[in-house]
């Protein structure tokens, strides 16, 4: 009897997957031209925007009644330039607060629809929550989540990472209160689906390289790592920084050579740092790419430097075939590949904190540990990469 009551309680207000199978799942990405137009619509419908607009009414009256226009002008400029910042901050906090009050409903949807790490699996969850939040007057539009990827990222930042990083039960109860049982069940469902997806990659059934014998690492095609690095950063994607870099070189002919030289060096080093992080952002777009990387490390038979060279070759081919990178030069060599794994995967696991817009990959922690142990040399990092 109690089990039936608990089951009925968990299914309250949850739109089943079968109910949505008969109708096409419609998300804001299907209705708006872009995420920018959706964002503008959400701002326009917010209470903070309306308050900002109403502020102009007393200001206009003040302009007419005031004999000195300096003070109304100063206040008007402050409202004009600081108002949008105020609106953006309030809207962001409002979204976060609204979602934090619906953690139980969020968990119910996850438990009911069993999404995995694939963003497409989150479409039903996003559509259901959009309807639920609007119908229950939690949010003032039907478009809380723009697409499935935004919903998945909200799950990651609101539930997955904060809950996983809590050290003890008391801290979890204090932070999430009555939501703890539902969160534990939702995370259990999610990790089960992630494990299913991982098994496909770990058995190498998802992808296997063809003609890898003829593949060459960039270290064999370039004079040095420096020339390879120059070719990677001086591209159209870094055009603004490239122009600033060449401008500094051009102005170095002036009298103040020391400051111009230092500025040139700083811009170049920033471009190198940005390139390193851009590679991780590109690899993090889809969970399958990160899983393939870890699976390739675990299943590599050779050890030492030769093993990392083979991993680099396989991943260069994989990322090129999947159109993640525009050539087969993602990794320069095995040392670069080993550094990349240790810096962006194993180090994040050890530090347990995100790095500059990079996800923490909580669901990948067991596989990161396994990949680190499978190398035998415990992924000894060589900081000479870059």
TrEMBL record:
InterPro entries: DUP/COS. The chain crosses the membrane at residues 47-65, 71-93, 226-246, 258-275. Keywords: Membrane, Transmembrane, Transmembrane helix. The keyword Transmembrane applies. Signal peptide: none annotated. It comes from the Eukaryota. Pfam families: DUP. This is Protein cos5. The gene is COS5.
């Amino acid at each position: 009897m109690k089990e039936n009551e608990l089951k009925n309680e968990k299914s309250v207000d949850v739109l089943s997957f079968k109910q949505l199978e008969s109708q096409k799942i419609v998300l804001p990405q299907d209705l708006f031209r872009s995420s920018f137009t959706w964002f503008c619509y959400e701002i326009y419908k917010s209470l903070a925007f309306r308050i900002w607009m109403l502020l102009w009414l007393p200001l206009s009256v003040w302009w007419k009644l005031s004999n000195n226009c300096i003070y109304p002008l100063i206040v008007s400029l402050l409202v004009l330039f600081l108002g949008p910042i105020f609106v953006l901050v309030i809207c962001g906090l409002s979204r976060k607060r609204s979602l934090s009050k619906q953690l139980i409903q969020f968990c119910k949807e996850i438990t009911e629809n069993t999404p995995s790490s694939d963003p497409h699996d989150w479409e039903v969850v996003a559509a259901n929550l959009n309807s639920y939040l609007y119908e229950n007057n939690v949010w003032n539009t039907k478009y809380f989540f723009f697409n499935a990827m935004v919903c998945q990222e909200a799950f990651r930042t609101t539930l997955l990472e904060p809950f996983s990083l809590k050290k003890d039960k008391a801290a979890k109860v204090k932070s999430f209160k009555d939501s703890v049982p539902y969160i534990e069940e939702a995370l259990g469902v999610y990790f089960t689906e992630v494990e299913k997806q991982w098994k496909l990659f770990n058995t190498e059934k998802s992808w296997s390289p063809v003609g890898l014998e003829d593949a060459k690492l960039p270290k064999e095609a370039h004079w040095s790592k420096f020339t390879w690095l120059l070719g990677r950063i001086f591209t159209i994607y870094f055009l603004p920084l490239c122009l600033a870099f060449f401008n500094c070189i051009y102005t170095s002919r002036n009298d103040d050579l020391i400051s111009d030289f230092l500025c040139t060096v700083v811009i170049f080093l920033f471009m190198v740092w940005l390139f390193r992080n851009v590679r991780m952002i590109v690899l993090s777009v889809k969970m399958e790419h990160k899983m393939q990387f870890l699976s390739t490390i675990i299943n590599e038979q050779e050890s030492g430097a030769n093993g990392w060279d083979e991993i680099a070759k396989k991943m260069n081919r994989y990322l090129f075939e999947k159109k993640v990178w525009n050539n087969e030069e993602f990794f320069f060599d095995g040392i670069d590949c080993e550094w990349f794994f240790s810096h962006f995967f194993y180090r994040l696991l050890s530090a347990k904190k995100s790095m500059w817009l990079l996800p923490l990959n909580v669901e990948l922690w067991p596989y990161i540990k396994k990949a680190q142990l499978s190398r035998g040399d415990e992924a000894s990092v060589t900081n000479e990469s870059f």
